[in-house]
Amino acid sequence: MNLQLRLDEGWFTVCAAGAVQPGRGVAALLPDGRHAALFIDRTGRAYAIDNRDPFTGASVLSRGLLGSASGRAFVASPLLKQRFDLESGRCLDDEEIAVQAYEVRLG
Amino acid sequence: MPPTLPAADRPTLLLVGHGMVGQRFLEALVERGATESHRVVVLCEEPRAAYDRVHLTSYFEGKSAEDLSLTPVDFMAKHGIELHLGEPAESIDRGARTVTTPSGRSFAYDVLVLATGSYPFVPPVPGKDAEGCFVYRTIEDLEAIEAYAKDSTRGAVVGGGLLGLEAAGALKGLGLSTQIVEFAPRLMPAQVDEGGGAALLKTITGMGLDVRTGAGTQEIVTDEAGRVTGMLLTDGTELPTDLVVFSAGVRPRDQLARDCGLDVGERGGIKVDEECRTSDDAVYAIGECAQTVDGKVYGLVAPGYAMAEAAADAIAGFPGSFTGADMSTKLKLLGVDVASFGDAHGATEGCLDVVYADSRSGTYKKLVIDPDGKLLGGVLVGDADSYGMLRPLTGSVPPVSPEQLVLPAGAGGPVKLGPDALPDDAIICSCHNVTKGQICACGTLPEVKQCTKAGTGCGSCVKTILQLLPQSGDKGLCGCFGHTRAELYEIVKVKRITSYARLLDEHGRESARGSEGCEICKPTVGSIIASLAPSIGAEGYVLAGEQAALQDTNDHFLANMQRNGSYSIVPRIPGGEITPEKLIVIGEVARDYGLYTKITGGQRIDLFGARVDQLPGIWARLVDAGFESGHAYGKALRTVKSCVGQTWCRYGVQDSVRMAIDLELRYRGLRAPHKLKSAVSGCARECAEAQSKDFGVIATASGWNLYVGGNGGMTPRHADLLAQDLSDTELIRLIDRFLMFYIRTADRLERTASWLERLEGGLDHLREVIVEDSLGLCDELESLMADHVAGYSDEWAETLRDPERLARFVSFVNAPGTPDPTVQFVAERDQMKPDLQVLIPLDAEGALSVR
Ligand code: SRM
Ligand SMILES: Cc1cc2nc3c(=O)[nH]c(=O)nc-3n(C[C@H](O)[C@H](O)[C@H](O)COP(=O)(O)OP(=O)(O)OC[C@H]3O[C@@H](n4cnc5c(N)ncnc54)[C@H](O)[C@@H]3O)c2cc1C
Ligand code: SF4
Ligand code: FES
């Protein structure tokens, strides 16, 4: 099973699902040069958001820790710890900030 | 920010006095947009902008003038306010609407606000101006007292009120034998009643302060040089003393107002109406210099803040008024809790008292109740825990009987009325007039402080606020676990749980079972499992199996992430001792990978700027040369610093380097609630700074002294001496026990310093447990440490051994060979630093793309 991410052109295969440890993420280089952060939670559900941490500009969100709040998964940035909702990309600690979220599937 | 009119077109608001209330007033103007509509000019008599006078005494406890500042650095510039320091107002011309200063400058105003505060009252006794007489109001006063105290041995304070006791505590803290002279028959006559005064007296004399009540000061006696040598009291006694602090009350600074013909009260204070306007419509007065509509002059900061708000409302055209305030106070004087609230003296007609007094423990509690059972006020001395709950209940009939409210728990007083019982409109923070409802609308203490300002004044409401907030009252680690870290440690240990998922599903809060957990409990549990690994049968390697998913990023990559996503590398250099060969290897690796190198504050070398995919290659070379991980990334032992010691140093009495190396090698890799630091000095000169460490060792002629609970960092703390003249074996045994007891009982991210501060019974209790083995725990603590020492292996060597483990060290999972293009560097001082340009600042376009 592969982890795939939806781009304008169609589904883009990132890696084998087994390459991602549940509860953590990986970074992917997209064809247009952007970086995406992909995660799998402990139930096996996959998520993808932009890898760039908008607070520092560093490409690091894939290296944050996963958690859940009110039943929704988030990642906490490894730099200044702001949390981002993994489905919407919205920052839970600053409502003016959001990162792009991508559609993903295991296929 | 909306466009601001040119200064000339806006009316000028002139504020005289930049003290606590003055600054609050400026903030209130900003909040109401009045700094846009007015040109604001401030005349400040003191050489520095507003600071926290309430916490003035903490200046003697090491707080600097900057720490006490209430004025954010960029506040004036940001809001276009002109602040003139050291420029007092000398006279007011109300006709011309100008204020002049002693330097001859004249300031025009359209609106004038007086916030000149009070001056300390000095009784007109002969000798009051002698060298050695002081007052207690400004930072300069404290500096002068401190300097004079250096050559003094005895001090006296005139006045046994709130400030007098505080000043007395400060003199004692400066090492003077201290006496308090109070004219009234009891201490703190304004706040507490006779019974409370008696309890207070007992505790305060018990602390070694001399108290004389019912005696006034007749004369200050001086020597030929005009320096204070003693005090003559009205009862005929003569007290020898080198230094006198007058703290006999304050008087409003209303002279400016008197001179220009504004109305002042009979006993002083500029008369103001409900909007804090004086008898001249263009002039306002706020804070301690004002006499408010209820005829009072308030000497506390909370009513002053309320006046600042009322005046700002009036000036900005909002409704608002000040009609009077609660005089409740809660203080921790010399370590004694004292609180009074509402009608503390029982002045209401027909009221009744409910009193509980225990002179053994110095506790006194009185509640004033009206005949219908309504709580009117009270006095609490010695134990003021219930203040936060009682004060808001004032004016209502408490849900339980008043006896139950004053009796200690266990003595028929089982009902601990929580803040839950309070109505939503109960005022919790009286400094900022914030209700329970407003507080409950916030989630965390920082949010409460930011949104409502509650808790940012005197701080006495913080405890109650914490009880009102969601996780509070609830000691749980986070939203996922209702247990504390120490409880989780016990569960993991006893049930030998090696899986986070199992712990969460079996012991998490109902709502969190089966969930993902969170970024707080994951690393905490990861650390507990790592600390206990050998004893519970978990793998010692922190990245083994499921454990890898729990570790913070730094532990996950065994390096410290820097601001641009690159990493730093800190090889262990035990005791700070290193051979030239190893230095050369570090130099070569740094050169070959182009890393920035720096000597750290921990006596080792940090290599910065490695990309994640470079870490294995760098470590392969370091491990090859005999280096190990320095755990700079982990909540684990960092360094054991050393001084050069007996081997070389002419003063050294033991081999401190050897001991530092032994300790560092023994405890390396030990995961703990927070990082652990240590140092060993070869003699009492203490060149290794051991007393600022979690555990510090200082050599003596006959062995080692062990200090624990020291801290540098944000809240420095000197370590406490735990045991003296220990042999090598005794020293190590005691440190083993100390560390394991700390790991077992501390909270998440609690350094040993704050842990020891919190530990019930403090150092004595710690000594009982780990020196005298009062809990019979020592064998277990030692054997846990023995397991750790035997199970240690270097994390980087382990990682390099297994290609699967190395797979995670790539910038991109789908392009393992491609480096992260955003990790770039530029040159600086012959090395390199992160190029932050490529990261694009936050405000730039596109950075905030909301989907
Ligand atoms: C590298 C170093 C500064 C330097 O260039 O000298 C440093 C760097 C950092 N310190 Fe430090 N501290 C360094 C010595 C110190 C010292 C001095 C000492 O150890 O003698 C102190 C004061 C002593 C103490 O801890 O009591 C110190 C007190 C702190 C604190 C405040 C701790 C506290 O209890 O208040 C933090 C924040 C924290 O840990 O929560 C901190 C946190 C940090 C962090 C981890 C901040 C971060 O999260 O990025 C820095 C990362 C290091 C890295 O990326 O490699 N650092 N830091 C020093 C590494 C020493 C070493 O060899 O391991
Ligand atoms: C040691 C100490 C402990 C205290 N503890 C507490 C406590 O626990 N709880 C509590 O509620 N209150 C406490 N207080 C009282 C509290 O500090 C005051 O209520 C508060 O500072 C009043 O604020 P203010 O702005 O009215 O006066 P101040 O803070 O005194 O400010 C007035 C300012 O105006 C300046 N000024 C005066 N005349 C002129 C002039 N002509 N031109 C220009 N500037 C002028 C003064 O130099 C001063 O800087 C304490 C006070 C002290 C000294
Ligand atoms: S602490 Fe003592 S032994 Fe060590 S270097 Fe300083 S003076 Fe010498
Ligand atoms: S009561 Fe003083 S800060 Fe809240």
TrEMBL record, chain A:
<keyword id="KW-0560">Oxidoreductase</keyword>
<dbReference type="InterPro" id="IPR012748">
    <property type="entry name" value="Rieske-like_NirD"/>
</dbReference>
<feature type="domain" description="Rieske-like [2Fe-2S]">
    <location>
        <begin position="11"/>
        <end position="106"/>
    </location>
</feature>
<dbReference type="Pfam" id="PF13806">
    <property type="entry name" value="Rieske_2"/>
</dbReference>
<keyword id="KW-0534">Nitrate assimilation</keyword>
<dbReference type="InterPro" id="IPR036922">
    <property type="entry name" value="Rieske_2Fe-2S_sf"/>
</dbReference>
<dbReference type="InterPro" id="IPR017881">
    <property type="entry name" value="NirD"/>
</dbReference>
<protein>
    <submittedName>
        <fullName>Nitrite reductase small subunit NirD</fullName>
    </submittedName>
</protein>
UniProtKB/TrEMBL annotation, chain B:
<comment type="pathway">
    <text>Nitrogen metabolism; nitrate reduction (assimilation).</text>
</comment>
<dbReference type="Pfam" id="PF18267">
    <property type="entry name" value="Rubredoxin_C"/>
</dbReference>
<dbReference type="InterPro" id="IPR041575">
    <property type="entry name" value="Rubredoxin_C"/>
</dbReference>
<comment type="similarity">
    <text>Belongs to the nitrite and sulfite reductase 4Fe-4S domain family.</text>
</comment>
<keyword id="KW-0479">Metal-binding</keyword>
<keyword id="KW-0560">Oxidoreductase</keyword>
<protein>
    <recommendedName>
        <fullName>assimilatory sulfite reductase (ferredoxin)</fullName>
        <ecNumber>1.8.7.1</ecNumber>
    </recommendedName>
</protein>
<dbReference type="InterPro" id="IPR006067">
    <property type="entry name" value="NO2/SO3_Rdtase_4Fe4S_dom"/>
</dbReference>
<dbReference type="InterPro" id="IPR005117">
    <property type="entry name" value="NiRdtase/SiRdtase_haem-b_fer"/>
</dbReference>
<keyword id="KW-0411">Iron-sulfur</keyword>
<keyword id="KW-0001">2Fe-2S</keyword>
<dbReference type="Pfam" id="PF03460">
    <property type="entry name" value="NIR_SIR_ferr"/>
</dbReference>
<dbReference type="InterPro" id="IPR007419">
    <property type="entry name" value="BFD-like_2Fe2S-bd_dom"/>
</dbReference>
<dbReference type="Pfam" id="PF07992">
    <property type="entry name" value="Pyr_redox_2"/>
</dbReference>
<dbReference type="GO" id="GO:0106316">
    <property type="term" value="F:nitrite reductase (NADH) activity"/>
</dbReference>
<keyword id="KW-0349">Heme</keyword>
<dbReference type="Pfam" id="PF04324">
    <property type="entry name" value="Fer2_BFD"/>
</dbReference>
<dbReference type="InterPro" id="IPR017121">
    <property type="entry name" value="Nitrite_Rdtase_lsu"/>
</dbReference>
<keyword id="KW-0285">Flavoprotein</keyword>
<keyword id="KW-0408">Iron</keyword>
<keyword id="KW-0883">Thioether bond</keyword>
<dbReference type="InterPro" id="IPR052034">
    <property type="entry name" value="NasD-like"/>
</dbReference>
